[in-house]
Amino acid sequence: MTNPATTHQSGTIPVQPGPREAAQSMDGMVEGAGPSGYPGAWQAAESADAVIPGAGPSGTPGARPTVKLREADPDDPPRYAPEWLELREPADAVARAHDLLDPLRIRLANLPGRPGGVVIHDIGCGTGSMGRWLAPCLDGAQHWILHDRDPYLLHFAAVASPRTAADGSRVTVETRRGDVARLTADALHGASLVTASALLDVLTREEIDTLAAACAGAGCPALLTLSVAGRVELTPSHPLDAEIAQAFNDHQRRDGLLGPDAVTVATEAFSERGATVRLHPSPWRLGPEQAALTEQWLRGWVGAAVEQRPELSARADAYLAERLAACAAGQLRVTVHHTDLLALSRPAGGAS
């Protein structure tokens, strides 16, 4: 028997084995989607040079990578292709800092008992990879509340959510469409934990302050994983590596976003509100077994650098071709550095 996953908009969705089934159930909702049902899949078919939406710039100057919904409002936020999130999910799972789980488990174990178990809010959940990684690592009943601005991704997250915790306890899910910029302590009332993955670096300072204030006001810890650290190592090295990396980092900081500065800003924001903050590296280590991910990451990384510094274009084209050839030959290894952050806010009511 499957556990129900409830959605804030449309009642009950049965939990399915994984995101591929979710993709098939949404077939036809995306403009240009091919027979696979995966938004973005048509791009790979049409052009070997396509970048999956979410991996990098769309190729149109000034445009962000999006998947267009047929009935989307023009002001709706960018949407990331589920196949990009699926492609990176195994690397994310390996990279996340397991060393932060023990202090988190201790905090959760010291919470007052609740009939429904712990309540976990996953902010910017995407297709729900955080829940699929974390829920089976924790004992006890769990109720996950998945937040995202994109109803399409919320559907993926709901139907592909895990059924059971580490000890076999029940895991249930509901979805809420919303924006981290509007998150409040009231919205987190009763929360045991806030989680997010690959989120901090696409936030502004104000949005991180809002998140930290909400967590502090609710007295709940936050596990925020896979924030870019601004450092990349490629083996073998190339004379253009550093210049591409710097241009990419500058691109990450555009429009007030924090990019590689996000972890420092978040640490300060949570610490100023009385939280104990722990940091741990969580690098992607990509080799021949991750060639598909490395290829898409390279295209997005170089594409963002060129969008930031168009004068790099000619040299970057040759650089990318050389790097892709090495990747295809199994000769390229890449370490993309990230940082995981655990903020242990003071429990509500002043308990220790």
Which parts are unreliable, with pLDDT below 50 for 5 consecutive residues or more? 1-47, 58-72
Q: How many individual β-strands?
A: 10
* N-C termini distance: 40 Å
Helix content class: 25-40%
Overall pLDDT confidence = 81
Whole-number radius of gyration?
20 Å
- The general outline is globular
Structure keywords:
single chain; 352 residues; alpha/beta; 10-stranded mixed sheet; 11 helices; 10 strands; 35% helix; globular; disordered N terminus
Q: What is the topological layout?
A:
Layout: E1 4-7, E2 11-14, H1 19-25, H2 41-46, H3 82-95, H4 101-109, E3 118-123, H5 129-134, E4 142-148, H6 151-159, E5 171-177, E6 193-197, H7 205-218, E7 222-235, H8 241-252, H9 262-272, E8 276-281, E9 284-286, H10 291-308, H11 313-328, E10 333-344
Parallel strand pairs: 1-5, 3-4, 3-6, 4-5, 6-7
Antiparallel strand pairs: 1-2, 7-10, 8-10, 9-10
Protein described:
This protein has 11 helices and 10 strands. 35% of the residues lie in helices and 19% in strands. Strands 1, 2, 3, 4, 5, 6, 7, 8, 9 and 10 form a 10-stranded mixed sheet that branches. The protein is α/β, with parallel strands linked by helices and 352 residues long.
